[in-house]
Write a structure and sequence with these properties.
Helices cover 35% and strands 30% of the residues. The chain is α/β, with parallel strands linked by helices. The chain folds into two domains: 235 residues, Rossmann fold; 62 residues. The strands form three sheets. The chain has a six-stranded mixed sheet with strand order 6-7-8-3-9-10, with helices on both faces. Strands 2-1-4-5 form a four-stranded antiparallel sheet, with helices on both faces. It has a four-stranded antiparallel sheet with strand order 12-13-11-14, covered by helices on one side. It is elongated and about 75 Å long.
Length: 321
């Protein structure tokens, strides 16, 4: 490819990705006879928490390894801040792998300083930042201990600090809550939100759909090496809404209008619970007016699918293709 062609591609990519920190463009990867990624494309907006989702073996780890330049793509390109991904970008990326890797015989403080300096920090800057993180994670008494002397949860804290100490623009967290009790999981969750507030972009790979629902702004779902869904969480959930409402009240619910369909109904001692679907372009207020003339309404809530529901639906659909 000529310099002029390369510059033209760069200019187009930079323009289209002005608000994206990372652009995945037609990336494919094959190992022997196994296709790990098949023409995967999506963009990650800057300053968001991005959920990278998929069942085991879908291709998530392969994509992460390409982004972190552990391996390379067979075809396709990845652009970081509008530039084709290159070795120099690694200092602006933090990666917490699912399989943690720390030097067991090395002291906590020495190891964190060493790793921070590998990422380009001076020893003085690394020491200053480390003191703040050690205090925040209550690790002061462990700084002089070897990693092997720490519990699994403590080791996880150390590795999290190593991932973010150099304040990278892009942070990749692969199952970051693995091994944490609920208290420390909440601590990490708060730190992830704080990092986003300070301008970092976080790629969050997990099987815990409740965490995705709570934390993620955008998601991409990969299944069988292909991207099957991506976009803002709110927009995706709205797309999968079925105009169904759960209604709880007193009285005998009897719907005869062709504009509404009762999908499920239970009655107990004069109290009913029903799921009702809107038909023929009817609106929630129409249904509510229809109901209050006939029964006493205590609760009227739209049933919006969870990310877990959508995840299962999309994975099931692609398995049947």
């Amino acid at each position: 490819m000529s310099d002029d062609q390369d510059k033209a591609i760069f200019d187009r990519t930079k323009q289209s990705s002005a608000l994206s920190i990372l652009k995945i463009d037609g990336v494919s990867k094959t190992y022997a006879s196994h296709t790990a990624l098949d023409n995967v494309s999506f963009e990650i907006p800057a300053g968001c928490i991005f959920g990278l989702l998929g069942p085991n073996g879908a291709g998530k780890t392969s994509l992460i390894r390409i982004i972190t330049q552990i391996t390379g793509a067979d075809t396709g390109e990845i652009y970081f801040k509008g530039e084709r991904l290159k070795p120099g970008h690694i200092k602006d990326i933090g990666y917490l792998p699912e399989e943690r890797g720390l030097y067991k015989k090395m002291k906590v403080g020495e190891q964190l300083l060493y790793l921070a300096q590998l990422k380009g920090l001076s020893r003085q800057d690394a020491t200053t930042r480390l003191k703040a993180w050690i205090s925040r994670f209550e690790l002061k008494e462990w700084v002089g201990k070897n990693i092997e002397d720490l519990s699994k949860g403590m080791q996880q804290k150390v590795q999290f600090i190593a991932t973010v100490l150099h304040e990278p623009a892009l942070i990749i967290l692969d199952e970051p809550f693995s091994g944490f009790d609920p208290i420390n999981a909440n601590l990490i969750k708060d730190e992830i939100l704080s990092l986003r507030e300070r301008g970092a972009t976080i790629i969050f790979s997990t099987h815990r759909m409740e965490s995705v629902e709570e934390l993620c702004d955008n998601i991409a779902l990969i299944n069988r090496a292909r991207k099957v869904l991506d976009g803002p969480v709110k927009e995706i959930k709205n797309t999968y809404k079925t105009d169904t409402f759960q209604i709880i009240g007193n009285g005998r619910l009897l719907i005869t209008s062709p504009d509404y369909e009762v999908l499920e109904q239970h009655e107990n001692h004069g109290t009913f619970r029903a799921n009702v679907k809107l038909l023929n372009g009817s609106r929630p207020n129409d249904l509510l007016r229809y109901l209050i003339e006939r029964v006493e309404i205590h609760s009227f809530v739209e049933l919006v699918p969870s990310i877990n529901d959508i995840f299962i639906q999309k994975v099931t659909e692609t398995h049947h293709v």
